[in-house]
Here is the input.
Amino acid sequence: MAGRHGARELERVEPAKLPGEVDEGIWVHSDVGLVLATPGPRSHFFGYYDKTPFDEEERRLLCHSVAFDGRMVASGDRAEIGLWDLDNSSYTALSETAAFNWQQGSLLQWLPGSHGSRVVFNDRLPGHFAGVCIDVEKGTRTLLPATVYALTPDGRWSVSPRFERLYHTPGYHYEGLALDEWRGGLPPGDALLRMDLHTGGVEPIVEVAHLAAHRPTPSMAGACHYVDHVWVAPTGLEMIFLHRWKADDEQPFTRLYRCNLDGTDMRLYPDSGRYSHATWLDPDRFLIWGRPLAAYARLRHSGGAGGWLLRPLLALWRRHSKRSAWRKLAHQVSGDGFLIFGNDPKAAQALAPMVLTQDGHPSACPVSGDWLLLDTYPDQEDYQHLLLYHVPSEQLVELARVYVPPSFQDTGFRCDLHPRWSPSGRLVCIDALCRAQRQMMVLDVSALIDRAGHGTQSRMPAGGRQPAGN
Here is the structure.
């Protein structure tokens, strides 16, 4: 691994240490405790990195359970919604859903403010998708008038894209509802929806057609426009979201916006065409992987001759992107990196540009802004890396390394680690492939956190040991 690492080694996870079987291609830092690994024969996963599967007491863990793996989700597939008890490794089924994908699941999450008594997720109904609220204690199931996505910390509001539209866009969609009215570049009515979970009221707050008409560029003409990521601020008063558009077989262009939760006070951040994964650092600042508005970005964004010149270079990059030399070169040319933004869209601060050199899924510790969880996509040796970054000391700790079979890589059924914190910032949960089957793992990182708090850093060597036979 590139970056600043110290002298401790990774240890291979032994099946005897965990409830259930764990693949020999998983290595964990010697100071990290292993709390749970979900067992087969079914696959278990949580979904995205920006929500936590832990309840407030860190005793129960939300998950999806499915009877298949290694392929795309089909319209007839269903996922079971369940809970793992971390005290005794027992499992309880709660419900099921037909609206899920491998990356985000069904947007399963605890309802804030319910003190661990209710969970929400999405399901497919005749003619539309909708949210569901389950009372864990009573076992009751309540249908919601719209899908859930990003919730406010008080549990009152949810902001969500229209999943009927996302069926026709790449990346994060649910199967089973190919509705003609949501096809095309800009179907009428496509918007971000805000749902009041107290009253059931639903209203459009950001129209996608308005986004497409704002400061149009040549690349937007005739493209398929959509919104597919939303992150609500810790205050619950603001949000950031991504407006994307895609023409033919090109890579999507992306704009980053910030606005109030009702869609007012809209601000466009540097229009470089490249943003992906974000996390809020505090009530005002957020971190996002993105690209400064440099000459390279302006050339690609302009379309025409610029896009024609860049197309073979982008194809070459995608073919060799796992090679560290190509990754470093692309990083230097494009300027891609983790950027910190506040209220001023023009003021961006790069975070550790010489250490954090590749895109991943960042999560700020809920207790201390000193710590960031990150992951990587598979490298040249087919390993994903789970990373812990200490901001004050600029130290990068490799928590774990997971082997990914090539058949899972660069597919819609890939298994990203998607690391998530527990509420106390002491535990970490990931989705990982164990013998070509995704399972959830819970890791105890408290020893590393405590050591750093006393001024002693425990860091990883570059590369580390490799598992025997891989």
Observations:
- The longest strand covers residues 224-232.
- Residues 1-8, 14-22, 455-470 have pLDDT under 50 and may be disordered.
